[in-house]
Specification:
By secondary structure, the protein is an alpha+beta fold. Helix content is 34%, strand content 23%. The strands form 3 sheets. Strands 9, 10, 11, 12, 13, 14, 15, 16, 17 and 18 form a 10-stranded antiparallel β-sheet that branches.
Length: 521
């Protein structure tokens, strides 16, 4: 295959990748600027994450469906879209999105859409599977015109860098050299550089002994702490977190024992931590520390807490754009695991969220970062000495990938042709109507297992749960393939008010429960 480059050294790869990315800045146009200008898009929705951590999420291999909102690209009649998955997507799901976004009844109505798969269900990142299949790479290469194409991914790693180089098309995503800034320890460094409030924590450690020492030292700096969070440095969705309660080890609190005694006692108590991932054990958790690294940070206490986030994008020209704020809906034992979100965030603190997001985005842009980013916060309701209430914001994590808040917003944007208004923090459709939504990534019940996507789509139509293009309200579904195997579904309920979005959400739950209760297969 003559288009493949000869083996390159690591330095040559990095140089070639930077050269390709520089083309984005020269030729970049926003979707609304394209008109009929030809610009082909390759979508690689690979979860190129640590696969042992990824398997903590039930149905994670179906997350490749979450980037189907990029079908919007086909509204430009001169452009082509190539979408890769590990396994072929069910026709009913493709038809659902084609009708929803483009008004087409099936992919056959659009010869500018090419759906490809590796036909490989194994627990490996999709991009790795593609790189192992030279003939598939050749097929992709022949379908694209490099000088007018670019590539999008879920998250960027050396795997995506290699594919970009092989295809000779730029990747609109993070340079893998900058991955560290999206980790737990990297986030802390960015927050410190920007002067943004964040919980005190440790430096990155690589073994259990150093983790215990780091926890002991942190306790000395924060002697009133009640709990700490141990975080795997490359964990995600809260699944790599564990909560360490300091009450059982209070006998070695600062002032009562030496640091060595304190560290030894904490070390022995690690087995009693509350792990946020289902069925996690200390044996497995501790085995990941040498591979992924870990930090310990003070757990943010508070009777009334919220988990807002801010989303932004760094353009190829370095411009930073804030495009949404959300209230995250958290689950798990200690509300550490992401399950959904609502839009927009509370206006009481959304202005500060946007300001912090801009600061962080500009910091990342100076480091050379590109594409979407998200910053998670914890907001605690406090009272002043005068008895007035206020919200204290602390940043906890930067995500340099397309997280759970990306696809709900991008779908809304696609379906309404609307825009986020930075000053008000609201989203307005093209008709000038403000829009609100509630989105879930994890509606999961045993009774939903065995439910086929085609049956779900029939129910959507029968009970008028679908998104209505006239009213620009209703429900948009994703992760539909997850239903049959693990009983899991994702969806976004859009309303003209927060109350209407909530009502649609309740109707969806009620209908699905009624349709699956007592059903046998």
């Amino acid at each position: 295959m003559t288009f493949l480059y000869p083996p390159l050294s690591e330095n040559e790869k990095k140089s070639r990748f930077r050269e390709l990315q520089s083309q984005l800045c020269k030729h970049w146009l926003e979707p609304e600027q394209l008109g009929n200008i030809k610009q082909d898009l390759l979508v690689i929705p690979s979860l190129s994450l640590d696969q042992r951590e990824a398997q903590k999420i039930e149905g994670v291999h179906y997350f490749e469906e979450r980037l189907l909102f990029y079908l919007t690209h086909l509204r430009n009649p001169s452009s082509k879209l190539i979408y890769l998955t590990s396994q072929s997507l069910p026709p009913s799901i493709i038809n659902y999105y084609m009708r929803l976004i483009l008004g087409f009844s099936s992919p056959s109505d659009c010869d500018r859409l090419l759906l490809l798969s590796t036909d490989d269900p194994s627990h490996k990142p999709l991009t790795q599977k593609i790189l192992e299949r030279p003939h598939l790479i050749q097929q992709i290469h022949q379908a694209l015109q490099p000088e007018q194409s670019y590539m999008i991914c879920y998250n960027s790693t050396p795997l995506e860098q290699d594919l970009s180089i092989l295809l000779s098309i730029p990747l609109f995503a993070l340079n893998p050299e900058l991955e560290c800034w999206g980790t737990k320890s990297g986030s802390h460094h960015i927050f410190a550089e920007c002067g943004i409030p964040h919980p005190e924590g440790s430096e990155l450690v690589w073994n259990v002994e150093d983790l215990a020492l780091a926890a002991a030292a942190l306790w000395e700096r924060q002697p009133t702490a009640r709990r700490m969070v141990i975080k795997l440095n490359e964990g995600f969705s809260g699944q790599g977190n564990a909560l360490l309660d300091l009450q059982p080890v209070s006998s070695v609190a600062p002032g009562s024992a030496s640091r060595a005694e304190r560290a030894n006692t904490i070390y022995r108590n690690f087995t009693n931590m509350r792990f946020q991932a289902k069925n996690e054990t200390w044996e497995n958790f501790s085995s990941r520390i040498p591979d992924l690294g870990a930090i310990v940070e003070i757990f943010i206490e508070g009777e009334t807490k919220l988990s807002p986030s801010v989303q932004g994008s760094i353009k190829p020209n370095g411009k930073v754009e804030i495009f949404s704020t959300h209230e995250q809906i958290m689950g798990g034992l200690d509300n550490q695991v992401y399950v959904g979100c609502s839009f927009p965030a509370d206006p009481v603190f959304s202005i500060r969220l946007k300001e912090f997001g801009l600061q962080i985005g500009k910091n990342l842009a100076k480091k050379g970062a590109l594409e979407d980013f998200c910053v998670d916060f914890v907001a605690v309701r406090q009272s002043s000495d005068e008895g007035e209430f206020y919200w204290e914001l602390q940043a906890v994590e930067i995500n340099l990938r397309k997280g759970g808040t990306t696809h709900p917003f991008r779908l809304l944007q696609s379906l309404t042709n609307g825009q986020y208004d930075f000053s008000s923090g609201l989203f307005y459709s093209q008709k000038g109507t403000p829009k609100y939504y509630v989105a879930f990534d994890k509606l999961q019940k045993d009774q939903y297992r065995g439910f086929l996507p085609s049956k779900l789509i029939d129910i959507i139509a029968e009970h008028k749960l679908h998104f209505n293009n006239s009213t620009e309200t209703g429900c948009i579904f994703h992760l539909m393939s997850c239903l049959s195997e693990v009983g899991r579904l994702g969806f976004t309920c859009v309303g003209n008010s927060p109350q209407e979005a909530e009502e649609i959400y309740n109707k969806v739950i009620k209908t699905l429960d009624e349709q699956t209760t007592g059903v046998t297969y």
